[in-house]
């Protein structure tokens, strides 16, 4: 491990040791900087922030400033977007806004992005890289095969730059610094990352990845979905890639954007030897259903690094299939609003990973959540947790679940992130979190309450049955159909490979029976919820859904398939693409 790496780990150890003090100090710094902004003035009035010590400030803050949702801050963010320059959320004017992906409803949300956002991104990248290189050292001046994509940036009528947070980061000085400081360079030039056309970028990432095959030290993307998606498309385009490698050319049909063509062609040189080798490997891999594709084509790669937790879990088995015996390292925990925690133990399997909170990045509060007893009379409750009052980081308890609340340097105050986490332990005095799910309930018809996590387990149970066939689940989503009585759940599946109808009937029955929520079970037994319906959609449907998101401003790097949707545009795509449907026979007396 280099000096620089041990320095940054030392820095984090010290911050974690004094986590409580770091938190009050972080809050003090945020308030000192921004107390004159309109939003804070509204709640804190003319309190002399300077005169209060850190812990008095902490109690004042919690009692005077209310918990907020994005909707509460939106009017201020809209005024910023419209060009108002008076201090609204922060003292310094905000010139950039980020599009948060809005994972539950698929509706884009703008949040402020400042220099602090890129600086903390660089900081956590370096910290995580230091932990990884302790376990899996990489060679200096190597390459990283990164499936990263910027979306287009635009200006609001008030002249504010808007784009996704990843787009701002890839365009920042800090992103260049990250490459220099970690001494690892991404395979693709900036023109590829920011082409704005994910298909063209993906082709170039793969082509350049092959070009630099021997130098690639690891394979990565923000979310695991993008790695899986890239290799699925590799299975279709590998012959063209080999032709381009052989001749030093770039397919004129796959890549048409002049700047991207110029930048990629500058790098490529005819390499018939490499092309023949890759071709032979691909022919062999095709026979093995592409098992172990990554180590076969990138023999010096040490690991695959990506977010594999939460809504990415369903892609894990396909990722392992491509990764063969290569380590899978689950990446860190953050959001467009703020980075939260780092994975300090790269060796832990993706389903066991925890994130140690970085106490200097934002001021974190935690709303204690208790799961409700499944009270069937409780028809009006739309959430399955009871909340207690928020507690500061220093008071969280091991084994308990919380919703995260953020106060950031970028102008969000007591902002409910909507993520549920469990405290699984501590690194020194900072909590280690296990990501549980997004807070919002996703599937509900009446008294039933099922979260994203519940749905994931049910789909995992159902798709287990496909293991005995040659088919596999590509992606899924769901919808609570209350248009007809009784309402019922619809689960949409896209499958690759052939499977007999009776097997799908069995999958459908298995999923219906696998919901453990008492509200659902009781409702199914008395038929106040109808039989679960499994709809099989044609190949490529989920790609269309992703493209629909991208057409609406999301970036592929940030994309997460919505696991439940009532969005009419998505439902239209899903229903047009449905080729078969099945109704469950579970609970049929
Ligand atoms: P975005 O709005 O696109 O920035 O997405 C942020 C959200 O992605 C978070 O609030 C989480 O719900 C999810 N997320 C981010 N990092 C992780 C992680 N390491 N594990 C699970 N979910 C994550």
Q: How would you portray this structure in words?
A:
Residues 453-568 form the GH3 C-terminal domain. GO terms for molecular function: acid-amino acid ligase activity. Residues 356-438 form the GH3 middle domain. Keywords: Ligase. This protein has 589 residues and is α/β, with parallel strands linked by helices. Helices cover 40% and strands 21% of the residues. It has 20 helices and 22 strands. Strands 10, 11, 12, 13, 14, 15, 16, 17 and 18 form a nine-stranded antiparallel sheet that branches. Strands 6-3-7-8-9 form a five-stranded parallel sheet. A four-stranded mixed sheet has the order 2-1-5-4. Strand 16 and strand 17 form a beta hairpin. Helix 6 packs parallel to helix 8 and helix 10 (198-211) crosses helix 11. The model is unreliable at 103-107 and 374-382 (pLDDT under 50). The structure holds adenosine monophosphate.
């Amino acid at each position: 491990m280099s000096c620089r790496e041990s320095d940054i780990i030392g820095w984090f150890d010290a911050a974690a040791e004094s986590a409580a003090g770091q938190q009050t100090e972080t809050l003090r710094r945020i308030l000192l900087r921004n107390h004159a902004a309109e939003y804070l003035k509204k709640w804190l009035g003319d309190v002399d922030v300077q005169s209060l010590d850190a812990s008095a400030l902490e109690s004042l803050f919690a009692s005077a400033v209310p918990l907020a949702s994005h909707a509460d801050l939106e009017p201020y963010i809209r005024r910023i977007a419209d060009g108002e320059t008076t201090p609204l959320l922060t003292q310094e004017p905000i010139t950039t806004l980020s599009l948060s992906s809005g994972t539950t409803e698929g509706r884009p949300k703008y949040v402020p992005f400042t220099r602090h956002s890129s600086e903390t991104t660089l900081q956590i990248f370096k910290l995580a890289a230091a932990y990884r290189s302790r376990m899996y050292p990489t060679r200096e001046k190597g390459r990283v095969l990164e499936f990263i994509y910027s979306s287009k940036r635009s200006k609001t009528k008030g002249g504010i730059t808007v784009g996704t947070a990843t787009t701002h980061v890839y365009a920042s000085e800090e992103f260049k610094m990250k490459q220099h400081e970690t001494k690892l360079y991404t395979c693709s030039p900036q023109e590829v990352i920011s082409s704005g056309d994910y298909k063209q970028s993906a082709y170039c990432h793969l082509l350049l990845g092959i070009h630099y095959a021997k130098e690639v030290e690891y394979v990565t993307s923000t979310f695991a979905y993008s790695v899986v998606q890239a290799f699925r498309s590799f299975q279709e385009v590998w012959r063209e890639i080999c032709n381009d490698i052989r001749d030093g050319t770039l397919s004129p049909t796959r890549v048409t954007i002049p700047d991207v063509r110029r930048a990629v062609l500058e790098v490529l040189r005819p390499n018939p030897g490499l092309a023949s080798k890759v071709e032979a490997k691909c022919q062999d891999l095709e026979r093995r259903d592409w098992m172990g594709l990554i180590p076969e084509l990138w023999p010096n790669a040490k690991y695959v690094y990506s977010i594999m937790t939460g809504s990415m879990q369903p892609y894990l088995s396909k990722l392992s299939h491509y990764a063969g015996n290569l380590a899978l390292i689950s990446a860190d925990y953050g959001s467009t609003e703020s980075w939260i925690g780092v994975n300090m133990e790269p060796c832990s399997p993706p389903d066991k990973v925890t994130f140690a909170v970085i106490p200097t990045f934002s001021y974190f509060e935690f709303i204690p959540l208790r799961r409700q007893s499944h009270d069937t009379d409780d028809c009006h409750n739309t959430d399955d947790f009871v909340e207690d009052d928020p507690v500061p980081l220093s008071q969280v308890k091991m084994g308990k679940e919380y919703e995260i609340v953020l106060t950031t340097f970028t102008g969000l105050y007591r902002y409910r992130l909507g993520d549920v986490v469990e405290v699984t332990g501590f690194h020194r005095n900072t909590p280690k979190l296990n990501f549980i799910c997004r807070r919002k309930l996703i599937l509900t018809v009446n008294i039933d309450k099922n979260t994203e996590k519940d749905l994931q387990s049910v789909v995992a149970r159902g798709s287990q049955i496909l293991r005995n066939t040659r088919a596999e689940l590509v992606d899924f989503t769901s919808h609570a159909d209350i248009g007809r009585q009784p309402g019922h759940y619809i689960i949409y599946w896209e499958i690759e490979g052939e499977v007999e109808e009776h097997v799908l009937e069995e999958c459908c029955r298995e999923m219906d029976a696998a919901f453990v929520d008492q509200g659902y079970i009781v409702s199914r037994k008395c038929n106040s919820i109808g039989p679960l319906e499994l709809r099989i959609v044609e190949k490529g449907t989920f790609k269309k859904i992703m493209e629909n998101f991208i057409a609406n401003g999301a970036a592929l790097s940030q994309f997460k398939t919505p696991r439940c949707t009532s969005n009419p545009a998505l439902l239209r795509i899903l229903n047009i693409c449905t080729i078969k449907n099945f109704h469950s026979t579970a609970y049929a007396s």
